[in-house]
Amino acid sequence: MPEQSKIRLSRVERISLKSSHFKAIYPPTEKIKTIIVNSFPALGELAALRFIEWVQANPGGVIALPTGKTPEYFIKWVIHFLKTWDTGETRVELEKGGIDPGKRPDLKTLHFVQIDEFYPINPDQHNSFYYYVNHYYIEGFGLDPKKAMLINCAEVGLDAGDTLESLWQNNVVDLSLRYRHEKNSLELKQKRALGKIDQWCQEYEEKIRSMGGIGFFLGGIGPDGHIGFNIRGSDHFSSTRLTETNYETQAAAAQDLGGIEISRKRKVITIGLGTLTYNRECTAVIIAAGEAKANIVAATIQSEPNTLFPATALQALPNAAFYLTKGAACRLEEREITLIARKKTISNEMVEKIIIDLAIKKQKRIIDLDQEGFNSDRQAKEIIKNRTTMTSCSAAFPI
Amino acid sequence: MLGCLPYIVRHVRSATNTHYFITLTSGFTAVANHYMQRILTLLKEFIDSPDCAALMEENYFDPENIDARNRDVWQYLDGVAANANTMKNEGTSRRLLRNLITIYKVQDIDSIKLCIIELEDYFKSQYPGKKDRNDIQQLKGMCREWEAECLWGYFGWDCSYMLHQRLGFYTGDIFMEEPTLERDVTPLVKVMEKIQPDVITVALDPEASGPDTHYKVLQALTEALKRYEIKTGRTDIKIWGYRNVWSRFHPAEADIFVPVSLNMFSIMQSAFMSTFISQKDASFPTYEHDGPFSELAQKIQVEQYQQIKVCIGRAWFNEHLSPLIRATRGLVFLKELSLEELYHHSRRLRQVIENR
What we know:
With 399 residues, chain A is α/β, with parallel strands linked by helices. Chain A contains 16 helices and ten strands. In chain A, helix 1 packs antiparallel against helix 2 (40-57).
């Protein structure tokens, strides 16, 4: 586990960390550096600044950027900075964030790697990730399309004359065909296609590795902790592959795909956790906003590497980080205690919250909680300290 | 709706209370194409029936015919009561036909049939999840508005108490627009002036933890209430914030705890499953539960009851003088806010979400 002094922080991160009033990491509870920002746009801005900082230092590097709603402000900020780079206002903004405005980043030099994609999906569909990355990153950021490694399902594994629709009727892909004999001519074609897709995935992986691996990765985190489509249970050494998803991922994808009935059937092609960590110098940043993500974020940051929490694989990377809004960070134990300890006065609501949590944890009525119980819980102990003038629990906490 | 239904039901049972249900966005993105195909098939069967011909004769499908709109709902609910699919299907078909006439201005049977064929072709040819053109968004949205009318019809509220606003920020795009004053807030002020509310319920999700629509609705409502307060001088309006399947209140955040009995669970399940037909198959579920929202809502309310039972002891419930408390098997958590508190809450949320 990294010690505080050994934590690597970029200039952008140091500046952001300073204004967050937290340390980068609280060992031994936390296993990976984490920066908290005040708002969803600020999260996007920090990610954008870190990205630009990385590009300035790594022209020609390999990047992998996320799809979905989470990167909304990241995309907006990067485009804003690029478009207004030479204006006085933006230069001040960049400098304030830790970027040298004298060194305009050249995004055309970058190699882009698409992280994942549903399979099968027509790449022309607006809800394909292929469409998304083309629209927002290749066009939006002005990347060089020739240097982009994309997952175009219409070109992966198909024989001449075949289409995704003719090969995978109703979008059903039976992965058991990898291991069993086909029963008819369609299954024969499908089996052949699966073999080709698997080979394609291996070559995709080889290409990434031959470039030295991914240099900058930005991703969100799913409700089950997935990064890319590396769902809960994924091997930390996994590589690019065609694979299944789990219910949580299907539910999260339902809105994009037009219903769970559709997303249940879809398989996915995703780079692996091993792909991500192949380059030990990779700057891997996970961004998360909102209380809905707080539990999975806390479990991931506070857990030893474990296949139950895919993003714990990133602990192998000294440059990896979580960037969170306050809502997403609200279950990080040490930071909560730090916050309580810092407060001169604690609101009754906060006191209520801690006492209720303690009662539930101990499975005891509030009225039956005793000093020992409070002392056994760090948050409860902190509020006792904070209200030391009181002599008994019932007097201290008149709820 | 599920996050506050048990409390609302208790209030609307009293004839001295008036209840309006305002849909600010229709929720068309949560209506799957296969559902639309299914109800178009029902309509195709209905349109050739003598019953349909008779209704056409009496100008039943005139978009302005409010009484007939209510009859759509009553027909459907009679079918629920009789457990008769044919009656329910007729109610659904009547409303779908009315919606087609409203949107496409078709009048005679032949044009309507042509319209149905075109729509069937459309739904068959679109890939799922594709952004729909405006008329389809409206048609899908009207299906959900119809479901809301059926739901509140359960409790005796007719269509005149349902106001469908279809606010413009709700576009179906991945990154939605922000509400604007003229387009989204002004219509809401007019609604306030019409209904003069004492209590308003609204989804009060924390930062980025519910649908983006909930957040934008909250911002539009807040702005409308500010304007309404200035216009009328009313400061006594209460807000009941609810959370539902997307996020929950910690008990310390809530200040209204509503007992939910098994009886109320049955009502909630039945009302949801019988009326929110496009949603009951849970095409767009949460990651927490593989099933209808009403099942998840019940699960959450039971968990909330268990929390409070631990905190105050089971005896408080089991030995209570009130049979309602003794019958409690779930709890709804709500947060009551004054207007000032709502403004403060919305401002804080806006700061976190938009940095403004």
